[in-house]
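Deliverable D4.2, example record:
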Amino acid sequence: MKMTVKRFSLEYDAVNGKNVFTNGDTVNGRIILQFSKDSKVRALVLFATGGARVEWHVDEEAFCLNEKYYNIKHYILQESREDVPVVIGKGRHVFPFSFKFPDRTISTSFKFEHGRALHELRVQLKQPKTRSRWITTVINFVSKPNVNIPRLMEPQDVSQVKTFRFGSGSVRMNVYLEHKAYKQGEALRVTLRVNNLSSRILRPRFVLCSKLVVYAQINEPHKILTERSSVVKPYRMETVTKVFSIPDNLTPSNLNCSLVKLEYWMKVYLDTPFAKSPTVKLPIVLLPSFDVPTTERSPASAAAALETFESRFQTQRIVQQASPLPEEPPPAYEACVVDPTGPPAYSC
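Output generated by the structure prediction step:
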């Protein structure tokens, strides 16, 4: 009996507005078959697979690595032990199914030039005396954040002191972030305090960066957002606050795959002419915008950290005000030039 398939499709229900699944979520869907007449089916099989793969080259040799997370096979229709096919009548037939993602560490979906992590649903339709038909649907999966990351929701406060050469002084910079974890679309507020005890002009710069770390190689950092601020003049103290709006479509941090990791950080530096710029880097964990269980933020601890940050800066201000500043600028270069035909000059 020749089978005529008018429709063979796979559908599943979204669990949120972005149609994104995470660990422990259940996928509810249906397989739709429509025949023009009574037909024989040997098997209707559902496959749920998840895994990652990376590829790279060394000289002229190609290498690859694979990582499997799950591989589930479920028979929705199956012929009897006597190899007798199942007969399905003419018309439209709906076969519901349910699949639950493992509630363990697995990678977020990603795809780039040298690798990918895919979560797929595939359906195979077997029928006598004909080739099998396949349907494949890719599911967008975002792994739950690792709540065991130290101080995920605690404030970050990092300082650095740099002394310039040739006795031109030093600079102290303090950078403050409210916490380490941020969601897609959330406002990221970074505060910089600069205590410029030097004769140099400093130009604060703020850069939100990402880096894709692939097995056996590291891609160059990528600048996502940049901000500039007005200069900090010599022997001055300044406070600069910048607010970055994290893009909604920015891929969340991927820290659960041993083959590929996607990392973010905030880089703050003082652009200094003719010298190495003082730089502070603060790690950032980017979370998906849909609700996932994370460690609750502690407003009290954040407020206490900010108060400590500000009080330390005020102490620096008092010390600087108590320190004598140069009463007058150094003499001009022309005043220090020695005329080889005249008497020596000692004005410098």
